[in-house]
Amino acid sequence: MQMLKQYILNGWPDKHHIVPELKQYWSLADVLTYEDGLLMKGERIVIPRALRKEVETKLHAAHLGYDAMMRRARDAVFWPGIAARIREIANACQPCQQSKPANQKESLIQHNEGLNPWDKTGIDLFKIFDQQYLAIVDYYSNFIEVEHLHTTTSQVVIRKLKNLFARYGVPKVCISDFGPQFSSAEFTAFMKAWGVHHLKSSPGHHQSNGKAEAAVKILKNLMKK
Question: Closest by alpha carbon to 182, among 203, 198, 206?
Fold first, then answer.
């Protein structure tokens, strides 16, 4: 990467004189920069070969499949062939394959994916091994968080959401089902006080909260392993 840095700072030689391992960067010469000690392609950090395995592990940690991994990569990191490598990882991972969205048409409520991370979230409660949990998923990135609940009252759910909002930011939109925890006056007041537009999935059309339900499925699969 030191040689690549020299090319960026001092100018690129004729393609025939580039060291073989850097020829794959030739077509990117106009968009590569060196800023604050980092090699950049636009807003993305160019990852050296020695660190790629670590980055792959972080991208793959949530087992959300190719599309979600690529969305995260496009926001932050780059190396030649990254898309093919991510597809290879996702295709070899059973949880990633299980997280592929079903080809179902959503009914009544249609959702875009949010313009930015954490703009829009979906939440759901689930039970496994006699323990209760709250799942929250980011519509933009498919990033999932889970919180253990000692009880499923609105008060406890609100406290967990406050912690999550403090950690990741307050979403503009939060989608849930019509469960009593999410339909109570206390929860409605919480959403209003925090400036969150609370949408409830259409009765009888569970696909409209499909992101959260898919997140629950992924979490249950992981917890059973």
Answer: 198
Which one-letter DSSP state was computed for residue 202? P
Q: Tell me if 66 sits within 8 A of 87, measured CB to CB.
A: yes
DSSP β-bridge partners for residue 86: none
Q: How far apart are CA 12 and CA 26, in angstroms?
A: 8
The secondary element (H helix, E strand) that includes residue 40 is strand 38-41
pLDDT confidence of residue 188: 94
* Positions in the chain whose pLDDT score sits under 70: 99-115, 202-210, 224-225
Name the amino acid, one letter, at 181. Answer: Q
pLDDT tens track for 119-141: 888 898 988 888 899 888 888 87
- pTM for the full predicted model: 0.48
Q: Distance (Å, rounded) from C-alpha 91 to C-alpha 30?
A: 33
| SS3 state of residue 80 | coil
Q: How distant, in Å, are the alpha carbons of 97, 127, 137 from that of 216?
A: 15, 9, 9
* Structure tokens belonging to residue 8: 């960026």
The rounded Cα 9 to chain-centroid distance in angstroms is 34
Q: What pLDDT is recorded for position 22?
A: 87
Question: Running DSSP on this structure, what letter comes out for residue 152?
Answer: -
Give the burial string for 124-135 (b: 16+ CB within 10 Å, else e). Answer: bbbeeeeebbbb
Tokens of residue 127, six digits: 């039970």
Helices marked H in the chain: 2-10, 49-60, 66-76, 82-91, 94-98, 154-168, 180-183, 185-193, 210-224
